[in-house]
Amino acid sequence: MVTAGTPLPDSPSRPSRGRRSALVPGFLLLLAILGAAAWLYSLAHSALPQLDGQLQVQGLSAPVTVTRDGRGVPTIEAANLADLFFAQGYVTAEDRLFEMDGMRRFAAGDLSEIIGDSQLAHDRAQRILGLRPAARKAVELASAEDRARFEAYARGVNSYIESHGTRLALEFRILRYSPRPWTPEDSMLVASQMVEDLSAGPQNALTREKVRAKIGPELTADLYVNSSWRDHPPTASHSVLEQNSGKDDKNDDKDEDNDDEDSGPDNSVARRTDIPPPPLSSPPSDLFPEDFRLPAGSNNWVVSGAHTVSGKPLLSNDMHLGHQMPNLWYEAHLRCGDFDVAGVTLPGLPYVVVGHNQRIAWGFTNIGPTVEDAYVETFNADGQYLTPDGWKQPEHRREVIHVKGKPDVVVDVTLTRHGPMVNELQPGETRKIALRWTLYDGIRNPFFAVNSAQNWEQFRRAFSELDAPAQNVVYADVDGNIGYQATGKIPIRAAGDGSLPEDGSDNAHEWKSYIPFDQLPSVFNPPSGIVATANSRITPDGYPHSISTEWEAPWRSDRIYRVLSSGKKFAPADMLALQTDIFSEADRFFAERFVYAVDHVKNPSARAKAAAEIMRQWDGRMTADSAAPTLSVRSREQLTRLLLEPKLGAAPNDSKQADAPLSWKSYRWAMRTVWLENLIQHQYQRWLPQAYPNYDELLSTAVEAVVSSPNAPQDLNAWKWGQQNPVEIQNPVLGQIPILNRWTGPGMREQSGSGYTVKASTRHEGPSERMTTDLSNLDQSTLNLVTGEAGNFLSPHYMDQWGAWYEGYTFPLPFSPQAVEKTQVHRLVLEPAK
Q1: What is the pLDDT of residue 297?
Q2: CA distance 726 to 323
Q3: Which of 335, 299, 241 is nearest to 566 (CA)?
Q4: Dihedral sign (CA 374, 126, 369, 443)
Q5: ∠ CA 212-289-295 to the nearest 5 degrees?
Q6: Which of 91, 166, 505, 627 is the most exposed place for a label (fewest CB within 10 A)?
């Protein structure tokens, strides 16, 4: 019996007051989280573009139709060119405005204004390099017609900004700022950033100078090798290779087992190869050091109808660039009367950069020319610098960096006749270094003429005005012609080749002129019917000019030529199979040498023999679930250390210190694997460290160092390559928000391939698109991006292309009016505002 004053027991169905009071803060926290989530969702949802119906837009002179397919790819059709490029700016801003603003801020050095002083070092560097003044000069050099089209594009972007002031991308609200109006200068600023991204900078020349001073000219020449017996200059004659008979035959057979285009997800063109494992639950703890970067580069090729099923050319291109979220390129189809072009565009810039029109197709890889020279300037106590005409007062450019929440930072940029003083940007450099760069001469944008070209002659005329970044351009047309053209302004020097810094006080190493366009490498309808480039050497023996002092290693281009020269008749699906090819001749070559060395030394450890056995059984394919690639790559890195440490010194404990001394890790060279290949093949005594009687002992020691390292697993077969070389992509702003970041990017995933495979994939770089144009039927062409068209994470097109990129399939690129109408999912008419 319960009497008055007796406390009631806790009811199992009703919490006590104490527990109720304890639950209140948690409940309120949950409400706050749900409220914040609802707020973020509503903001993001309000920024989604209108896709159907009619929309009045201020600034148009006539209606513009925007149709989108199932992946959100727009076909923009206008009655006049001014409205077409206005609409291109408007539609691109709908999907990518925050990315566009971020790219111009990154280029100009304006990130501190919205993020804070954590970006100050970057902003200082960009202000010193002066991309904004270079962009301004480019606009001044543009023709009146080009300026008008750039202004139309800017008006379209600004019309979107003005009409969506409170409904812009979520990132603007989180960072609490509004974008400034867009200008033609901003478009050229984005283009200038692409030039910077594809340029090497003066660092290699300064490091090479130190290396040469320490080890002498002979060893330095070995290290900085710039050619290989594997090179395939596109203008040199190429005989058709016999079908490979080595260990990679199984891989070639795998490439050939599907000649047809099968229907994949969402009408995709299926060609799945080497699907990587699921996402990593957490960042791998055993990644390669940050300063050991695997190379990455672009591929393009074209084959004539003699090599295709259709009898007409196939042209393929996958440009390898740094990953970002959303991805770099924006797919679009632009149509206005006879102007009809489709492909990838650069957000912030009008026109199509890579793609095709009704008659021709083209694709890029970076040449990597030497267009940035370092000059050592001599200054006196009065602040003047020495020239052939005596002492001269430098110019100064005052840059003001706005810093969020803090006072402005003023940067005084000193300018000599060669360019800005950049010694501040070179860690440990005490001399006064000026930078000469083709970008400072002004760059032209020829893409309207490129998009309009109808034949080889018009194509070459248009690309004669592509000043930078210098590109290898492959060509095909509907008449069956194929070709190749090198582009860009590349200096001819009075002496030297730009590989070392030069004295700036005289004219001994000045730029005299640029290589004439008609003397740049070019070929039309080569007898082999095959042209391919992959950033490796493009100059044939005896070429009279120096184009680049640092080509990429030729492993990818050699592999591409071997596959294309196999005698097979190719279909578009075969081109995708080659783009996703993961066979590495480089890594197989070194694995075989490591195996041989372990087999031929006395008393190798049991673990070294186990590693050798894993590599012995390997077919050279960089699959995510294989241990052999990890063993080969890590052994190669240890071999590099064993060779260079006695010559250049041990690496400092803190490898990130600003003024780190010269060490073996200072050596960074695109052809470093060619240097290693040369040493192993020729076994130069001048490179063999004194502690080793022969190269077998040296190579075996490299393997021993790998398998005995603290990071090596007990079972070497557990050392999966996909965990050592993952891909990581995340939204730079939304990816910082816990829980939400599950939906704002792929995150970190295991992947197959490497920097030396045709599928050149590393952690932060890889194919930015994969395109194949079928000149027999343009509607059978294919194209896919990395993640998707949209920049809004609530859009169904934010990541709807990720599966294709990651797993190795692709999508059709409809072009004809009938094909566009057949694949239409949304139709919006932009009408002039009344």
Answers
A1: 77
A2: 12
A3: 241
A4: negative
A5: 65
A6: 166
The yes-or-no verdict on residue 469 having pLDDT over 60 is yes
Residues 6 or more apart from 575 whose CB is under 8 A from it?
Answer: 314, 316, 772
**d(C-alpha 756, C-alpha 320), whole Å:** 12
At 616, list the tokens.
């012995």
Query: If DSSP codes are grouped into helix, strand and coil, which group holds residue 25?
Result: helix
Q: Write out the DSSP string of 233-264.
A: -TTS--PPPPPP-STTHHHHHHHHS--S-EE-
pLDDT in tens, 412-452: 999 999 999 999 999 889 999 999 999 999 999 999 999 99
Of 591, 563, 602, 596, whose CA–CA distance to 579 is shortest? 563
At 93-112, the pLDDT tens digits run 999 999 999 999 999 999 99
Mean pLDDT of the residues in the chain: 90
Contact in structure between 414 and 130 (CB atoms under 8 Å): no
Q: How far is residue 420's CA from residue 434's CA, in Å, rounded to a whole number?
A: 5
**pTM, 2 dp:** 0.90
| AA letter at 489 | K
pLDDT in tens, 354-385: 999 999 999 999 999 999 999 999 999 999 99
Other CB atoms within a 10 A radius of the CB of residue 252 amount to 18
CB-CB neighbours of 793 under 10 Å = 22
Round to the nearest angstrom and report the end-to-end CA distance of the chain: 83
Q: Which of 628, 262, 205, 261 has the alpha carbon at shortest distance from 429?
A: 205
* Tokens, residue 513: 């002129």
- Return d(Cα 763, Cα 290) in angstroms, integer: 11
Helices (H), 617-725: 628-648, 672-682, 695-707, 721-724
Q: What is the pLDDT of residue 276?
A: 36
Structure tokens of 192? Answer: 């200038």
116 φ, ψ (degrees, to nearest 5): 120, -175
Q: How far apart are CA 365 and CA 298, in angstroms?
A: 5
Question: Is 30's pLDDT higher than 60?
Answer: no
**What's the pLDDT at 168?**
93
Q: What is the pLDDT of residues 562-584, one digit of tens each?
A: 999 999 999 999 999 999 999 99
pLDDT at residue 266 is higher than 70? no
Residue 15 to residue 222: CA distance in whole angstroms? 79
DSSP summary character for residue 309: S
3-class DSSP state of 522: strand
333 bridge partner residues: 75, 342
Contact 266, 800 (CB under 8 A): yes
Q: What is the 3-state secondary structure (H, E, C) of 428-474?
A: CCCCEEEEEEHHHHCCCCCHHHHHHCCCHHHHHHHHCCCCCCCEEEE
pLDDT tier, 200 (very low <50, low <70, confident <90, very high otherwise)? confident
Q: Count Cβ atoms below 10 Å from residue 245 Cβ, excluding itself.
A: 8
Q: Reduced to 3 states, what is the DSSP secondary structure of residue 174? A: helix
- Residue 284's pLDDT band, with cuts at 50, 70 and 90, is very low
Q: What are residue 90's phi and psi, to 5 degrees?
A: -65, -50
Strand-pair partners of 43: none
Looking at the predicted structure, is the pLDDT value of residue 181 above 50? yes
Report how far residue 628's alpha carbon sits from residue 613's, in angstroms, rounded to the nearest whole number.
9
Q: Tell me the backbone φ, ψ of residue 483, rounded to 5 degrees.
A: -170, 180
Instruction: Decide if 160 contacts 284 (C-beta within 8 A).
Output: no
Supply 31's token pair: 């409400």
Maximum CA extent, the chain:
113
326: cis peptide before it, omega within 30°? yes
